[in-house]
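Q: Is it fine to ask for two folds in a single conversation?
A: Yes, each is treated on its own. Send the first.
Q: Here.
A: Result:
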Amino acid sequence: MNKTNAWKLALATAVAVGATQVARADTIKIGVVAPFSGPFAIYGTQFKNAMDVWEAQHGKSVAGHKVEFIFKDSGGPNPSAARTATQELLIKDRVNYLAGYVFTPNALAIAPLINQSHTPTVIWNAATSVINAKSKYFLRTSMTLPQVSAPLADWAYANGIKTVVTAVTDYGPGIDAQKAFAKEFEAKGGKILDDIRMPIKTTDFGPFIQRAKTDKPNAIFSFIPAGPPAFSFVKAYTDNGLKADGIKLIGTGDIDDETTLQGLGDASIGIITSQHYSQAHPSKMNQEFVAELKKLHPDAVANFASVGAYDGMHVLYRMIEAGGKDGAKGMKAVIGSSWESPRGPLTLDPKTRTVTQNMYIREITKGPDGKLENKEIETIKNVPDVGYPTK
């Protein structure tokens, strides 16, 4: 028997054996796959912290069902590890729902599994548009890179930026971001002087920054995965004198993530990013969200991963409320629904199954407390996933 047939038999057996058991059980199991070790473990921490906030506000049960979370570590971008973790959750743990998934390759790797198991899977981060086209069981509460990048291109051209060098990490999200930005920017009349793609394991960004500097653009547009790589890229930009030369740094919110913002220093003031969330978002709901997060985890910082998980919890709870263990019924209840989030109004688009949401153009400034913050300077309302495949 080959591995594919063995997997199908194991899954079918688990479903058959578990059917009578789960029918009697009051506990609904949700598997969460994310990095809980290694250089990207901050994502797992952000997810768990946001989950704690949700449970503090909404409880640990829904419609008479206790909710149990089972966590699996995927490490970094590791499709094999993500697939193995997901298989264990489906077969051994017999979860009713799946959630998490930080990296695009990991999410793509598990699509065949959930297509076989029909398990609703709420993506809390992975941001390449094509992901949701690979399975009708994917729902996404984060964003996509085209959703973030296209509005920034419009803003850049309208604010006097006419020439740009793009510098992105060379994998799905980076390519999505570059293509969406370039398409919109060139449609407005802007010019892309160079397209730099950097290996995902790069730690020395100096040569790429110098290459961009020689082109003398008005700005560099960048996407780098949030965390240590993005921090290093921004430091390379400031340390190599591009700001002094009048070359602006613009990009997705990953490059000045809230968790690393204070370490960037005053040299980062003026960097412009587009993102669906800032800890400084001036709404009552966000203030309550941040306050509860600080109460539970005093050293925590709210960021895009936090709201991806928080709103992911909203979707999971609503599915359970509507369908219990019946994932199809639960999905039917949430697709097309709207709600208020700490980031602003959201609608789970029926076509793309990614949330339609506001995008915020943000500038690094000093806040009232003297600390750096991503201040929202412009709002682009109700942006859908403009990169979703049309064929």
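Q: Second one now.
A: Result:
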Amino acid sequence: MPWLIVTIVILGTFIGVLTVVVVRSIIYPRRAAALRELYRRGNYGGAIRTARRILTKDPRNADAHYFLGLAYLGENKPELALMELKTVNEIANFTGMVSEVPFRKKIAELYTGFNQLDEALKEYLLLAKLEPTNAEHYFAAGKLFEERGKTDRAVNYYRKALELNPRHGLSHLHLGRLLYHAKRPAEARRELEEATRYAPDTFQSFYYLGKIYREAQEYSAALSALERAQKDPDAKVRALIERGSCLMEMNSFDRAIPELERALKLAEGQHETEELYARYFVSLCYEKTRQMDAAIEQWERIYKIRPRFKDVAEKLSHYQELRSDDHIKDFMTVNMEQFRELCKAVVVQMGLSVREVTDISEGCEILAVEAQNKWLSARPLPKLVRLLRTTSIIDESMVRDLYERMKSQNITRGVVVTSSTFSQLAFEFAETRPIDLLGTDHLQDLLKKASARR
């Protein structure tokens, strides 16, 4: 009878479907469990083969895609791993062996590794919703906002991480660094000091603290922090340059030179910007310590790399003129004792008699009087003469400082003699005061006359 045949067909179909369901419900979980065990034992090849077999019959099996991705990672194939985890994300079935939180952490790491920052950020924001009390998710999101240049949002996420975990050293470090670049040194200092407390092995925090201490002229603290910062390979060259700069500000040029030479050795051919600054700062130290050939060599090296770097072109031009005149070269390079004698000889050529010599930064200052004429009974007038050996342009502040010294000592006239030149503001200031400004040409003439009389 027809109805009996139909019944038999329907019943057979039902039994077939039920059999498939039963088989899948028993066999596939067992295979998935076996797959997980292969992965846990580090048998990545076996895990890959098992996962592929499962996916041949069940292409949307999230567990198989997940462990296949992890096995690819185990075999150092991150591109294939990311493809599999993307598929898991599309399936979005977290009822089996795939736990959503570990999955999202792993795929976020892969997105970050492939510089897919927007996708990684989405994952960390989802993780923050799944685990709202976990500071790590907020910290990771803050880092990604920072890398994308959204510093305000980065600051907010770092602060949220610290609300959840005040001992999170890396959040203190990143927040302190952002505050430093935002010109908020007091706040940055607090955060960075907390970073050194809770994450003492993150030596980058010592680098930024060293910069803050140096800018506050707390040189001892700065040198100590920058010494520790050198333990970070990425910060070592910059820390050495900062230490050199710190010592330069302390006028400890002999101590600064070894620090800067070490920085230069590490940076040469590797980090162009750091190399240029190391060369420039060590050249200034050579200049201050009268090692002019060494200074000129550094300026020439800088000029080859970047001709417009700071005032290197001007220094080379100026010293090129000096190198053609032995008198000026001696004036610039002799030791301090010989320099004083040259200065006395120059003052004598100006028609003055030397009374007192005082060493000052980049030169010396001589109290002199006009050479007395035996036919005149008038008291000789004193003059304060400041002689400077430098390539830097003499600005108004230097001339003003001389004028204040003159007033404090009741000296009516002053002279500034330099191996360089003067700024326009310096000339304008001197025009209305009893001060004469003598540049390189005058100095050359005076030195030649002094040499001829010896």
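Q: Anything structural to flag on that second result?
A: Two points. The beta strands are 352-360, 363-370, 382-388, 413-418, 435-438. The domain at 26-97 is CATH 1.25.40.10 (Serine Threonine Protein Phosphatase 5, Tetratricopeptide repeat).
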